[in-house]
Amino acid sequence: MNGFEQCIIEEMNQIHIPVLLDNVVSGLHPALGETYLDLTAGYGGHADRILEVTQNYKGAVLNDRDANAVDYLKAKYQKEKPEITHDTFYNTALRLLESGTKFDIILADFGVSSPQLDKTERGFSFTHDARLDMRMDARQDLDAWEVVNRWSERKLTDIFVRYGEESEGRARLLARQITHHRPINTTAELADIIKQKSGYSRTHPATKVFQAIRIAVNDELGEITETLPLLPKLLNPGGRVGIISFHSLEDRLVKEYFKHASKQGIESELRLLTKKPIVAGSTELAINPRARSAKLRLAERLS
Known about the structure:
The protein is α/β, with parallel strands linked by helices. It has two domains: 3-115 and 222-301, Rossmann fold; 123-219, DNA polymerase, domain 1 (Orthogonal Bundle). A seven-stranded mixed beta sheet has the order 3-2-1-4-5-7-6, sandwiched between helices. The termini are far apart. The protein has helices spanning 3-15, 21-28, 45-54, 67-76, 89-99, 114-118, 144-150, 153-162, 168-180, 187-196, 207-218, 220-227, 248-262, 282-287, and strands at 36-38, 60-64, 83-86, 103-109, 235-245, 270-272, 295-301. Helix 8 (153-162) packs across helix 9 (168-180) and helix 8 (153-162) packs across helix 11 (207-218). The model is unreliable at 7-14 (pLDDT under 50).
């Protein structure tokens, strides 16, 4: 690793703080030699700690759909050389399942990473003015500009209700406002248009709309729904899976699937390790306010 790569790695370690790190490690309780799949490895915050214990780099697969994260991981693990893949977590899970590969530990963190939010040109956040984008994988065609400027008023209303959890009336109002002001090119333009039709709010009035558009662009809930049933089949008996979600729509899917997979009598695939989701404590929140929405659920593969 050259000096420039080392500087980038050190900088990213400071920018991106993995959420619920101690809880993830204690809940998944890795052991020396165990195999590990990280479906959303990001910048390796969780992977670092787990691989420090397992020391089984050759038995690890680190996946992410963000090319920047993948390039970072390849530079970070030049010496150890775990398998690093650039794909959606569903595609990676399906490929591994078809190959017959199984793991002792699986982790999926469904949140948007700090570098994605903070990197202006990614167009995820209304706090930075940039072209509407929001793609986690820049190779895909659909982006936020397309959704905002080409989708019908009815379709926008639908995603604001389903993915942003806005009321039907407010969703319809905002969708009409957006279609009336087209073309809308930047995050700041969109946020201002939403703000014009909003009263006082403790959070920015565009928060839910931006969430809805991001979920639609990346098919986030569809990915989760398709991936969850594959996870038990990717685990060795006694293997553990941890899933971190960041809003109620994600957490509900995880909660319901875990409950279903653990309530099938002798055919149950999982045993719940958490009856309620684990959330960040006051110490972590003081260091990393973005952890406030994080919820961790854990389960174990039955034999």
